[in-house]
Write a structure and sequence with these properties.
With 653 residues, the chain is mainly alpha-helical. The protein is built from 25 helices and five strands.
Length: 653
């Protein structure tokens, strides 16, 4: 039971808190907005998600430069953003007059309500949109239901593949943790290969959700994949106006490890490509359907500028290899009325590229490193590799089947465009771009990082499969529609196909070694310790590599230091514990309120024996010693030096 609670707290509690925060914000929006957006359901969520995530990345960059990346300041800025959104102030009118008008209307509203003996909030306060048709309501509920189902399915998929994880507590995990902690310590630009935008979002997520950096990093892979799957569903719904293709694509992304080139042993790993694609894919769709992002061309330009700049700080490779080619393809294929928006997007791209280059030029000057080397380091991945024995065929062979499907669908889409069917322009645009990705993979261009390219292809392959389903399903749609069960029929077929795909994948998964259980124990033990204690009120004794976990949270002792000197420190502290004057002049004598000693099953026998001997010696001295965690592969003992001085509940009660 404790294991289930741990995984709920570590993996689902953070997203649930964020979801409740946005639900509360949405209720306030419905209550205070003068006029509601015409967008509903997932159509309402995605544009605001893109704007919010982009703004969060840019603001985080700014805050780290002024040493202001702090929880309270972040919450204050977020609150200010929502207040300004609710007030809906006009730029061309005097702000003071607008605020005075809002204040007067608020006072009058409250007085009138009290005089009429009516509540301040009623149901009609939320009804500010024209009544929706029954079909529109059904579409909204289907969208929300499918999005929630996809989110849950992605978590189940990743949870299933945890048993094959090789990422947790690996060298890459520790390096990623250092980067997350660097953001918390107000450091963004340094000589590292990765762009820091993704780590800023992980650090921000940790602060807002109340999780430790370690837990936030450990479930970043979950959340990125789930969000991207929902975005994939939305993108295909925008293109096809059908639920089935998007749902199939999302589930293939989650369960199709036999046909897409992704490692099943790194599902926990933060992948900047996936986070970047949660921004890039909507920006691509907005280039095909500009008014679904922002109606005014000026607003469209501004938010494209912010979005592209934020995307570049998350993953520069995606900004170059995805967004620029796609904007150019849209300019060539889109009708004239949309090209004006595409030109603004291209202008925004050029300006954001100039700002990014200027930023890295300044950074290279202050860090005394080569500007070219710094820029190139942002275009490659040093901590992700592609190892896919789970594929039904080597991807070098499988890609030719996908190219054949792509070309066949492209010919069919071209034929439909020739018959004056405008919807197929968007489908053809996507197919041309996917063919572009396949082409640069087959050509094996040396300057491109193959691992990043395969991650990118792994996002677009499910989209290609979703479009294939759409082409096959479309002739049958009119027949199924007569039965008044078109959505149910689509969902049933999709779930059957996904189930079959997962069944095939299950037999292939055994080629990867199961290594997760012992690492999960370490994570669980740290969660039990950190969850309810004040920072720096305790120390942890563990291996030297885990000293990086302690950074910014608590004191750390290696096994060598513990075995060599702790007994002497304990003796000194016990001797002067009651002498307050001596402790004031000799603070080095004071021990942390509690010391937690990790004793892993696979610890060096000689070290383990000495640790146990020291613990027994402390027990004989009368020190309070208790086991706080016991798992299959690790035990954790607490040495209590000052009772009731570490746990928050003990201090309060």
């Amino acid at each position: 039971m404790s294991d289930v609670y741990f995984w709920f707290s570590a993996t689902l509690l953070g997203p649930l808190r964020i979801l409740l925060f946005f639900l509360f914000s949405y209720i306030l929006y419905r209550l205070t907005a003068v006029k509601l957006s015409y967008q509903t359901g997932i159509e309402f969520f995605v544009p605001r998600f893109v704007m919010g995530l982009s703004a969060a990345i840019i603001v985080s960059l700014f805050l780290t430069q002024i040493n202001g990346f702090d929880t309270m300041l972040i919450l204050m800025i977020t609150s200010l953003f929502f207040v300004l959104s609710f007030l809906n102030l006009k730029r061309k009118k005097p702000i003071k007059a607008q605020l005075q008008k809002i204040y007067s209307r608020l006072i009058l509203y409250v007085v009138i309500r009290f005089e009429a003996n009516r509540s301040l909030v009623e149901r009609k306060n939320f009804r500010k949109r024209k009544p929706q048709t029954l079909e529109a309501k059904k579409t909204k509920f289907w969208q929300i239901g499918i999005a929630l189902f996809i989110f849950a399915a992605m978590f189940m998929s990743r949870y299933y593949f945890l048993q094959y994880d090789n990422y947790l507590l690996s060298s890459s995990w520790y390096e990623d943790l250092d980067k997350v902690k660097a953001i918390a310590e107000q450091t963004w630009f340094s000589v590292v290969s990765d762009s820091m935008g993704g780590y800023a979002i992980i650090s921000l997520y940790a602060k807002i959700s109340g999780l430790s950096d370690m837990l936030a990093l450990s479930n970043a892979g979950f959340i990125e994949s789930a969000l991207l799957a929902v975005i994939i569903y939305w993108a295909l719904y925008k293109i096809t106006h059908k639920h089935g293709p998007g749902l199939l694509a999302a589930l293939v992304f989650g369960f199709g490890y036999t046909i897409i080139p992704l490692n099943i042993d790194s599902v926990l790993q933060h992948k900047s490509v996936f986070l970047a694609m949660t921004l890039a894919l909507p920006l691509m769709i907005f280039n095909m359907y500009p008014t679904s992002f922002r109606q005014k061309k000026s607003n469209y330009f501004v938010w494209n500028l912010i979005g592209i700049l934020a995307l570049s700080f998350v993953n520069l490779f995606i900004a170059l290899a995805v967004l620029l080619p796609f904007i150019l393809i849209c300019l060539a294929i889109n009708p004239a009325e949309k090209r004006a928006y595409n030109l603004r997007a291209l202008t925004a791209y050029i300006i954001s590229a100039a700002l990014l280059l200027l930023c890295y030029l300044v950074v290279s000057y202050f860090l005394q490193v080569s500007f070219v080397n710094l820029l190139v380091s942002k275009l490659v991945s040093f901590d992700y590799y592609t190892y896919t024995p789970n594929l039904i065929l080597p991807f070098s062979e499988l890609v030719w089947y996908y190219i054949s499907i792509n070309l066949a669908l492209g010919i069919a889409a071209s034929f439909m465009i020739a018959r004056k069917s405008s919807r197929w322009r968007s489908i053809l645009t996507i197919l041309i771009f996917v063919l572009f990705l396949f082409t640069i993979y087959v050509l094996d261009i040396p300057i491109l990082d193959d691992d990043l390219l395969l991650q990118l292809i792994a996002v677009f392959l499910p989209i290609l499969i979703g479009l294939l389903f759409y082409f096959i399903y479309l002739p049958l749609y009119s027949l199924i529609k007569k039965l008044n069960a078109s959505n149910l029929a689509e969902m049933s077929v999709v779930l059957i196909l996904t189930g079959g795909l997962f069944y095939v994948g299950e037999s292939k998964a055994s080629v990867t070694t199961e290594v997760f259980d012992s690492k999960k124990d370490i994570l669980h033990a740290y969660y039990e310790i950190e969850n309810s204690r004040l920072p720096y009120s305790y120390a942890v004794v563990n291996t030297s590599s885990n000293g990086r976990v302690s950074r910014g949270l608590h004191y750390f002792l290696s096994y060598g230091d513990f075995n060599a000197s702790y007994l002497q420190k304990d003796d000194n502290f016990a001797r002067y514990k009651a002498d307050d004057e001596y402790l004031k002049t000799h603070p080095e004598v004071i021990l942390p309120s509690s010391v937690f000693v990790f004793v892993p099953e696979k610890l060096n026998p000689k070290i383990s024996e000495e640790v146990q001997r020291n613990l027994q010696m402390l027990k004989r001295r009368g020190r309070e010693l208790k086991m706080v965690y016991e798992g299959p592969s690790v035990q954790v003992f607490e040495i209590v030096n000052i009772p009731n001085s570490s746990k928050i509940n003990d201090l309060l009660l």
